[in-house]
Amino acid sequence: MTDEGLVITGISKSFGGVRVLRDVSLRARPGAVTALIGPNGAGKTTLANIVSGFERPDAGRIDVSGHDLTRRGPDRRATAGLARTFQNLEIFTGLTVIDNVVMGAYGRGGAGLLSAVVGLPRARRADRRARAAAEELLDRFGLTALADAPVESLPFGQAKLVELARVLALEPRVVVLDEPVAGLPAESVRAVGEQVTRMAGAGAAVLLIEHNMRLVMEISDHIAVLDHGELLMEGEPAEVRADPRVIEAYLGPDADRIAPRRES
Amino acid sequence: MAVSRIRRWRPTTPVITAVLLAAMPLIFISDFARAIQLRFCVMLLLLTGLNFINGYARMSSLAQAGFYGLGAYTAGILAARLDVPPALAFVAAPVLATVAALVIGAASLRLRATYFTMATLGAGYILYILFGRMTGVTGGPNGLLGIPALSVAGIEISGPLPMYVLAAVLALLGVVVAYNFERSRAGRALRALGASEPAAVASGVRAFRLRLFAFALSGCYAGVAGALETFDATFVSPSSFGFLTAVLCVVGLTVGGAGRAAGPLIGAALLTALDELGTEYAGYEMLIVGLVFLVVVQAFPGGVAGAAGARWPRRGARPAVARATEGSAS
Ligand SMILES: Nc1ncnc2c1ncn2[C@@H]1O[C@H](COP(=O)(O)OP(=O)(O)OP(=O)(O)O)[C@@H](O)[C@H]1O
Ligand SMILES: [Mg+2]
């Protein structure tokens, strides 16, 4: 069976009578970065919430690797190999950097509640394995020196990297990233970009929501444009950049030079 | 850099607790001191239990006094009225308190934080009213009398010192279990859930189940505390399990340091001291509580344990932070 990656089919969603998404269908293939772009309020985050199970669609379905996850809660979707980050930084304050990353692997299973309380050897072994994997990820993100620091002591850019490392700890098949580089300095943008490319290289299906067009054009294999809750078009980066509808709705006439800015 | 390699051993909370619980009865030996020491163990159990839900999960339960009372009355009624062997009555107390926590938690833990607090306040108050009003079963406001001495396998545990030893062993066990839990996968998940529910759930944490587990643990600990209280005092009256106790538990834990292993220990010490102050300066103790609470919450959001942790950070923490800020500056 070939892995289908993430398949979004006919998703519609209204909030109190306001249509936010209208019959959106989209695919994110394994091993590729699929970008989802569009103006503020287009419905990108809403779609990410529906994909990850935080919001229920009015119609449509979500499949991951051939499994229909539409009726599953967000926690069960993590177990099925779907990981996500959030537009607003969501980290585990009060935990160390390494524990933040170890937490990312929670959905992959481990010792049960009771054996944890009693401190059974099996629970300890499973814990050591998760820690070793997290150490490897920290190394990859250049965060090894910070492993035992409280995560809230990190500057924003590094906290964002921790969030990304946490997502990878799940060894996900599908990754949804909601604006991973918003507010980051240039060198962090590059670091995040490299890691996203690497995720896809390792076989994950990456759905990247992002306003930074330079990054999107550089690392995406496929781009979909959402406008007012509808899919405006999709295609390869060059096609999207040249499409008059996209230029009008989102990019503006200076698409080649200027990345659209968003107020935050 | 080399300095951070040296792992200076620091006493953990279970070790400090063990030393404290072992030293106290050797240093202060009067019956009066014994009563205070036992009170400390009971408080330690109550706050260590409450720390699961109010500390690690960062929810605010006001039901701890209700579970405490339920434990006390379960043990008392079974032993005094139904002639259940005292040891069995003792064990039944945490079992029933756990079941009550599961039921109340199942009904309230899907609510948002503030509503959960209101629900636990209501549940705790209903229990308190039942203790006072079900006169036929509980003895009502006059209290429940005729509680027999506790005996395990034919050995009677009565009198100040044996009761204290039992209380100390149970309190230490409670602290060790909580300490293991905090460091375990489930404990980490509970703390993560308290810090960011979306990120925890997106990592696969079953939020409701885990919170229910934490709440049940808090009920269980309160049940043990109640049973100890009953067999020590050989008398149960509703007045110990009302709103004031519920609030004092929350205040004690918050001032001690909610969500930190040492928090319940510090909080229990403060509440026990307050108890003694209260008998000397009756009427003014709540004023003291209010003032201390205000000052600590303003000045040290992490409680006393949090402030101490910032002053003496865990190994590795400080150099790492220094490196982090250097990194961002360059
Ligand atoms: N829970 C909600 N209730 C009501 N309206 C909502 C809700 N969530 C989102 N919306 C509305 O849905 C629309 C789409 O919002 P969404 O956050 O999905 O946009 P977005 O494409 O992610 O925008 P941005 O680029 O600014 O992040 C907006 O008009 C927003 O106000
Ligand atoms: Mg958004």
UniProtKB/TrEMBL annotation, chain B:
Its main location: membrane. It is found in: Cell membrane. Keywords: Cell membrane, Membrane, Transmembrane, Transmembrane helix. The chain crosses the membrane at residues 12-30, 36-53, 65-82, 88-106, 113-131, 161-181, 243-274, 286-308. Pfam families: BPD_transp_2. It is a multi-pass membrane protein. InterPro entries: ABC_transp_permease (IPR001851), LivM-like (IPR043428). It comes from the Bacteria. PANTHER family: BRANCHED AMINO ACID TRANSPORT SYSTEM PERMEASE, HIGH-AFFINITY BRANCHED-CHAIN AMINO ACID TRANSPORT SYSTEM PERMEASE. This is Branched-chain amino acid ABC transporter permease. It comes from Microtetraspora glauca.
